[in-house]
Structures are given as structure tokens and as C-alpha cells.
Amino acid sequence: MNAPPTPPLHVLLVEDEALVAIMAMEDTLVCAGFRVTVTHNGREALEADAKDRADLLLTDLRMPVMDGKVLIQRLRGGRPGLPVVVVTGTPPEGGVASIQSGDPGRTQLLVKPILMADLVVAVHWVIEPA
């Protein structure tokens, strides 16, 4: 007897940049087997996550309304260990450690512009067991 198929992991994609960049990331992740919800700022992301909990957060840092660092802290505050991939054009001083803030979740930092293949590698890295 076959086990029921495992549902795809849900990625919450938070990006305020050009629509083309968002669509490229979304398409890449869907083709890699993920389910993706797209939002454009931290507040929208929190609302989307409350309705449909994400397995992984993919976010920019500099966004209107609520920046990515605050978003990460808010989501990880209720869900320590949430895997996070940050894609940003302005990496923070201190790199991943400044984003991690002592949380046990895996975090990967990619600096724009990125290759979509690197995005998929980063997503797989943060969801792999340590």
C-alpha cells in the first residue's frame, strides 16, 4: 500500500521589487516543487502567514511598511527555527549573524542580483536537517 503523497512545502515570498523579479522567483520555486504565496511587505506577509502558515520564509530586508528583519523576528518569535532565506541588495553589517539574532533556525543570505539556481540551492539548504 502506498503512503499518501507529502504536500509541497509552503514558501512565503516577501518582495517589493519589480514584478518580473518576483515572478521569476515564484516560477523557479514552483518548478522546484514548492507551493508559494507572494506578498509585498512585512505586514502583508504576517497576514498571509496567519491564514496559511508557511514552512519557509523568503524575504527581502528593505521593504515599506515593515522591513524583513522585523518580519523575521516576528515570525520566529512564535515559531523558533523557521527556515529563512534573505535575498537583498543591501546586506547587513554582520551578515547572517545580524539576522539570526540567536534563533536556532537556519538562515541563508543571498545578495542581489542572484541566479535562480542559487535560490533553489539556498532554499534546500535551509530546510535540510542540520
Automatic annotation (TrEMBL):
Pfam family, one: Response_reg
Transmembrane recorded as keyword: no
Positions of post-translational 4-aspartylphosphate modification: 60
SUPFAM superfamilies with a match to the protein in the record: CheY-like (SSF52172)
Keywords in alphabetical order: Phosphoprotein
Domain of life: Bacteria
Response regulatory domain: residues covered: 10-127
Xref: InterPro entries: Bact_response_regulator (IPR050595), CheY-like_superfamily (IPR011006), Sig_transdc_resp-reg_receiver (IPR001789)
Protein's UniProt name: Response regulator
Organism expressing this protein natively: Azospirillum himalayense
Upper taxonomic lineage: Bacteria, Pseudomonadati, Pseudomonadota, Alphaproteobacteria, Rhodospirillales
